[in-house]
Every structure is written in C-alpha cells, then in structure tokens.
Amino acid sequence: MPKLTRRVLGLGAAALLPTAALRPARAQAGRAAVTFAAVTFTEAGRGDRLKAWVEKFNRSQNGVEVQPVGLPFATLANTVFTQMGGGGGPDLVRFDQIDYYAAIAARRILPFDDLVDTSGYKFTAIDKYLLPGGKRYGIAFESSNYVLLHNAGVLKSTAPANFEDFLSVAKASTANGVFGFAFRATMAERPGFWQDVCNFVYGFGGRWSDGAGKLTLDAPAVIEGVTAYKRMYDSGAIPKGADAATYRRMFWEGKLAMEVDNGGVAAILNQQAPEMKLVATPSPFPTRAQGLILAPLTVNANTKNKVEAAAFIKWMLQPDAQSELQQILGASNCATVVPRTVEELAAKPWLKVYDEQTPNSVPQLVEGFELKTPEIQQIVLEQVLRVLQADKDPKAALADAQRQALSRVIR
Amino acid sequence: MTGASHGAGHLLRLAAVLGVLLAAAFPLYWMFVTSLTTSASLFAVPPRALPDPSQLGVYAEAFQTIPVARWLRNSLIVAAGTTVLSLALAVFPAYAMSRFRFRGRGAMGLGLFATQMLPEAMLVVPLYAIFADVGLLNSLGGLILANTAFTVPVITWILKGAIDGVPLDIEEAARMDGATRVGIVLSVVLPLVAPSLAATSVIAFFHGWNEYVLAQTLISQEGLRTASVGLASFVGELSTPVHSVMAIGVLYTLPAIAFYLMVQRYVVAGMTAGSVKG
To answer: What pLDDT sits at residue B2?
Structure first.
C-alpha cells in the first residue's frame, strides 16, 4: 500500500503550500489595529451597516484601524474571557450587562477615568446602571426596551390592554398554523428564557431582590408573574419548542400574531418585511415595568492600544456618529440622547412606544447581587421549568428557588 | 433452513440496514431541503418534504455575499495540515514504543494517555497565552499545531497497536538486505499498517475539520476563520438566517464526506485483510 503514503504526503504538501495563510496576520502597515468584538457584527441586516459605520471612523484616521470581530451570541463571553485570561483579547468589547459586571469584578476592563472625559455628554437615563460604585467602565453601545409587538394583519382584534385580554386574544389568533404568542421556555436559550421571565415578573410588579440586600424570589408579585407565564404556556397559543430565531421569522412570515420583544428585534422585523403592519403597544401587564437590554462598550485591560481605543470612543460619542448608530440599531438607543426625527417617527410609529418605555425599563439583573445573577438565574429558571413542564405549584417552586439561592449562592 | 425462511431473513436484514441508513442520512437530507425551502413554506403544516429547485440561488448567494469559499479553504488547510503533521509526529514515537525497550517507556505511554484526560476547554487559556507570546495567534499554522497537540497522543497509541502486529521477521529480512531503521519504518512498516494510517488520518482530519473552541479563540481575524466558526457566526442574538445556515451546513459537510470516501476503502481493506486467510 505505498500509494497511500504518497497520497498522504501529497495531501500534506498541498495543505502546506499556501504558506501565506499560515503566517500570522498583521495589521495594515503604519496603522495600529484595534479589534472590536461584538455580537451585533454577525446580525443579518444590522451587522453590515455597523461595519460600514466603523469604516467611517477608519477613513477619518491615519494611525488607527478598528477591525470588527463578529462573535456568536452564545459564545462571545466565553471566548473573550478566555482570551483575556490568556493575556490578550479584543481591544474593545461590547458586553452584555451580566458580563459587564463580571468583567469589572475580574478587573478585565479598564475604568474610563484615564481614557475619556465623559463629563460633557448627555447620556440616556439607563446610563446610571453602568456606574457600579460610581465608577464608569463603559458607555452604552446599545440599550433597548421591551414592548408588545403585533402584526396587525394577523391579530384577530385590537391590542390587548390587560393580561386576561392578552390570553384570550392570543388564543383567538391561534389557528391553521398561526400562533397567538411566543416566548422562550428552554434551557437551550437560557439568556433569552431569563429575559422573557423577567418581563412577566417585572410586569406583575415583582423584582428578584428588594435592592437592599434581600432576595425576593418568592415574593407574591414574582409568584404572580410566573403563574402568568405558566398560564400562557398552557394556553395552546404558543409554538412550544420554537426558538427565538424561529418565532421571530414566523412573525414576519405572518405565522405569529404577538410577541414581547426588544427594539433591536423590531428593527429586524421591519427590515425583513417592510410591508408588514408592525404595531407596538405597552406590554399588557398590571404595571409598565419591563426588562432592559443593556450592552456597554468597554476597553480590555490587556489592550496595548489604549489611546487608539479611546480615540474610537470619542469619535462614536460625537452627535453625528451617535445619530447614525441609533438609526442602525433601530428602536434601540445608543449612549447619548438622540432625538428621533419627525420623518423617522412618521415612518415607524412603533419607535415612539419603545422610547416612551425607557423610564419603566429595569435591568435583567438581580439588584445588589449583580455578580451572582448567573447562579440565581440558573436556580430560578430550573424551578420555572418545573412549573411549566411538571406542573409544580409556582408558590412552592419559588420558595424552593429562594431557599436554594440563600443556601447555595448567598452564603 | 428453507429457502423461503432464508429469503425472509435476508429481506428483514435488508430492511433493517435501509432503516439505519435512512435514519443516518435524514438529517443531511432535511438540511438540504430546508436550505431550498422558501421562507413562506418554512412553517407550512405539513412541512415540505421536497426541495424547491427555484431556491438554488441561496447557494450562489453563499459564495457571492458570504466568504464561504474562504472559510472552507481555511478549514481544508487546517484539517489537512493537522492530518499530515499528526501522522508525521506520531509514527516514530509509535514505532519506538512498539519496538524498543527503554527507561521511561511506560511513563511516556502514560503521559500520552494523561493528555487525553484534560478537556480542550481547560487548556485553551494557557495555549492562548503561549501562542500570544510566540506570535502564533491569528495563524492557521498555529491552529494546526494546536490541533495536532490533541490528536498526536491518540494516533500514537493506535499506530503502536498496529505496529505491534507487524512480525519482526519482516523487519529482520529488510535489515539483512541493508535497509536502515528509518528506511524500514517508511518502506516496510508503514505500508503494512496502512489501514491504521487511514483510520488515524480520518480521526485527525475530522478533528481539524470540526474543531471549534480553539479556532474561535486563537483566530480573531475574519479572513482566517474556519468554516465551523463561520457557520456559528450566523447564530445571532436577535435572529438567525435559517436558509444561509442550512446551505452553508450542506457545503460544510461535503469536503469531509469526500475525504472519508477517499480513505474509507483503505480502512475497509484493513478490516477485511485477514478474513480470507487460512
């Protein structure tokens, strides 16, 4: 069988021939390469426009080139923290809020004190959540509120005003392969599952803690929120098992009537089906409180391009760059207050509903236990799954969650 | 056994084999059908079972608007490089462990086994730090080296087992004819363990082809992405383009299948080599 040996050697030679590809990649001559990792660069529709926006910065500079690095949502934090642990990683990172707090605690990101003077900017109301201990480690790259969206061509009535209405409208809209509502209810989509549960719990007036160091996982309002989640789950109006990517596609394909989702999603839905009559209303819960997506832009503590990274941040905080960024992000907001234009609001009336939600948006973190949120989240979601799938009583489930969190997490 | 019962048994076996084949091939088929289904039909009840040829444009789009060709090329370089380097580095240690008695032989074997007990994810941080120090980040050559580190131990052990089965008399005869030790390994031993070489090349190739964690962590330049990372990059925070993912998924499986078909006959030859003796 000497042929095989020759074949293998030939294959190896062929593989090693393109030596250019084997050599480490280098930045363009004379320019410092600043890498910028974000999930948003991978998104259909928004990703390419964001890259073009970054390119504008590159064209305005002689000595710096920001290189976008798109990473998958599910693995961004793991990948970036691994790289940071190894002494490297991207210079700029768009983190989610939970990872933002983890990065601060692990001293993986730089405080802004020496980087950028942020005193002269008018930041949006949610900026207060980026200042743990009064110190700034990032600025909001994107923040987004949650409201109820419906496809007016599919919904069988007007938008529901309260939860009972919501349930009956969802059921009435479910027929012939069309579903009334959708949310996440599997551990495979843990972050999204948490976001959806937060919306129900916050909407019923619940919070995961009292903000003064006491967990309130078993508070009556939290139990009400989880009970409502279960009632919707059992209503027959949701496509059980469909992940968010699938039901969002169903929405713009006219197979889903309603969903509670953030402003970034509204922009994607509008872009995918511009002819669809997209309507936004406040979520039909007893209170207006809903979750908040908050993704700060941070600077890696390992960066060797501190000055260049700061130059990009200063550029992106300029009014023109902010205005363009906000338009790309859709119904989300950026770091500073950017008023919508009359034309924008006329073309996309749902933008106003999202913007008006801002004072009622609450981060999907356990206040006072920000660093412990992932562990508390795991405990709560395990119990919610038992409620949904094993018909466990919500009150008992959340009492168990409270007990477990106190013994396992808050010791 | 009567002819009729023999025929029925044969039919049953055939049906069982067909069933297993269908179960194995169905996910691939469904991936192909989904890639060629219109958006409007994706959620049709009942689901569409046949591909819609009018949607073939999604494949052209994958090459025109997404750097799929570059991703596949990078994956091919990494997989082939990992295969060649792994075999080259494993052959001689395997031969030494099989043929020589030396101090530390047992420890060496145990050491190789021990490396297999550490999960890749655990080693990725120190690997990243070392690669950063020696300038191997963002390099396909670096990725080949990293993958090879994980495949060499297992390949060494497999080849050692195969070489154990080669009679020493054959080597003695070659030595009497004036062959050197290296010459014996390359010209006598390796051809005799070709089926094992083929099997281990499949292991190394598929490791390099499918590997995700190292490729994601050690490579950040988009132009050097491998297909596994490129494919995962479509899973967005807010949406996932199902057609593109499925089309690229189909394209991603083809080179791996082609490689397996190429070496599969050697593996089978090895499995059946002794079956007609006696």
So the answer is: 64
Residues 80-139 of B with CB under 8 A from A: 80-81, 83-85, 87-88, 124-129, 131-132, 135-139
Per-residue confidence (pLDDT) for residue A9, from 0 to 100: 47
The distance of B36 to chain A (nearest Cα, Å) reads 16
Q: CB–CB of A248 and B74 under 8 A?
A: no
Taking only the tens place, the pLDDT of each residue in B33-45 is 988 887 667 767 7
Which one of A25, A45, A72 has the shortest CB-CB distance to B224?
A25
Position B87: which residue type?
A: L
- Rounded Cα distance between A318 and A238, Å, is 43
With H, G, I as helix, E, B as strand and everything else as coil, classify residue A260.
strand
Lowest mean pLDDT among A198-202, A211-215, B113-117: B113-117
Q: How many CA atoms lie less than 13 Å away from A399 in the CB half-sphere?
A: 5
| Every domain of chain A and the residues it spans | 31-143+293-350, 148-291+367-409
For B80, the closest chain A residue by CA position comes to: A15
Residue B178 Ramachandran class (φ > 0 left, ψ -120 to 50 alpha, else beta): left
CB contact under 8 Å between B84 and A70, yes or no, is no
Query: CB-CB: which of A24, A37, A250 is closest to B135?
Result: A24
pLDDT band at A188 (very low <50, low <70, confident <90, very high): confident
Report if pTM > 0.90.
no
CA-wise closest residue to B185 among B203, B163, B167, B156: B163
Helix extents (H) in A253-329:
263-272, 306-316, 319-329
CATH superfamily for A31-143+293-350 is Periplasmic binding protein-like II (3.40.190.10)
Position B1 confidence tier, pLDDT thresholds 50, 70, 90? low
- Name the closest residue on chain A to residue B239, using Cα atoms: A245
Phi, psi of A92 (to 5 degrees): -115, 140
On the question of pLDDT at A398 being above 60, the answer is: yes
Query: Complex ipTM, two decimals?
Result: 0.74
Q: What is residue B25's three-state secondary structure?
A: helix
* Mean pLDDT taken over chain A: 89
Was domain A148-291+367-409 assigned CATH 3.20.20.80? Answer: no
- Among A1, A8, A248, beta carbon nearest to B239: A248
Q: Do B76 and A264 touch (CB under 8 A)?
A: no
Superfamily of domain B56-272: MetI-like (1.10.3720.10)
- In A, minimum Cα distance to B40 occurs at A253
| Amino acid (1-letter code) at residue B232 | A
Interfacial A residues in 353-392 facing B (CB < 8 Å): none
A35 closest CB neighbour out of B44, B124, B220: B220
